[in-house]
Amino acid sequence: MAAANSDQTQWHTFTCGEEEYTVPIRYKDPKKIGYGAFGAVAQMTDTVTGKIVAIKKLIQPFRGTEYAKRAYRELKLLMHLDHPGMHIVRLLNVFTPNNNLREFETFYLVMKYAGVDLNRIIKRHAFTEEHIKQIIYSILRALKVGVFYENYSLPYNTNGFVALQFQFAHSAEILHRDLKPSNIGIDEDSNLTILDFGLGRVAADGDKTGYVQTRWWRAPDIYTNWQRYDDKLDMWSVGCIMGELILRKPIFPGKDHTDHLKKIFEIIGTPDRSTLDEICTPDVVEFISKMPRQVGQNFNELFGYKYAAGNPQPTSGISPVGVDLLRHLLTFNHFDRPTAEEALAHPFLTGFHNPEDEPTLDSLVDEHQNACYNVEKWKSIIWELIQRFEEPVVDADDDNDDMDTDSQNIP
């Protein structure tokens, strides 16, 4: 559905949580999911398809140029990542209740609903090594496809609003930059999806914004040379998530930037001077050189198999080959971290990796990527995108993943 239909009987207005929604009457039974400075999300039932969906209302997206550009990026990215058969949770609908461009004030995004996020599951359940493999494979499979957009801290870090199922990020050259357990949704079939896509930007040379990601999952690249980083940023976050799945707690819970680096070095060790000189700005080299030098921890002892007395089977942890993958993901020098494609080929994921079932997307060419338009121009561009949007044909099979999750559902 594109812009508002002139027949207002096809719409209804109600309050859900703190926000008023005006949506087509096909969407009913609203339940609050999340609310923040930039948007509100509600769970609703699509009476046309019978599916439960998550609907995000953008709150005052045209209050300023940066807000308008953020709204454009989110919509542009989700429309680009519409690709059937690639395990991407698609943009199901986008609409505005406003009748024309002059009245255009907000719009709504309709996505598949994911019942729970990974953060909640980590708090409630331990993971077997097979579950950890499945989760990390799914994340990497999604990252292989695209490299995500600039992070602006979306309004909700909660279950429900699904952007896509991971792999297609990096081949489409989109940097996500906000990978963390609360931004990973899991449905009843154990399919994983990346949540919160208003934060991406197309990967390109040039300066980047300095503040991204919740700190604990943030790559040190943000500190070492914050204006120059690449898709390896996401790979560090995958390593943080993998470590958290093993220990069931964040592995780098820094209180501030300095403490975060300290926590990182306590586990991986302080990089040598040649590494610092290669990837850090001079002031960062000087800063790190003044920190107490850390030798790091033994990864096999920290993340490897743990045994209970009298039990030959491991009760937690992962095998040495899994520890090897984790060590590579948590490499301080981003040049030495694997790409998503390289990580997928690691022996730890042999039972899941299938290159023929891991396709890629064409790069997203965004002519407005670095544009500095005024609000009215951004509003006009977004209006046209909404006008051109066509609802995808969603088959019943689209909700299923090709992985055999029936026999090993994530707890």
TrEMBL record:
Occurrences of domain Protein kinase (ranges): 27-349
Domain of life: Eukaryota
PROSITE patterns hit by this protein: PROTEIN_KINASE_ATP (PS00107), PROTEIN_KINASE_DOM (PS50011)
SUPFAM superfamilies the UniProt entry points to: Protein kinase-like (PK-like)
Matching Gene3D superfamilies: Phosphorylase Kinase, domain 1, Transferase(Phosphotransferase) domain 1
Gene Ontology MF term list: ATP binding; protein serine/threonine kinase activity
Keywords: ATP-binding, Kinase, Nucleotide-binding, Serine/threonine-protein kinase, Transferase
Binding of ATP, residues: K57
Annotated protein name in UniProt: Protein kinase domain-containing protein
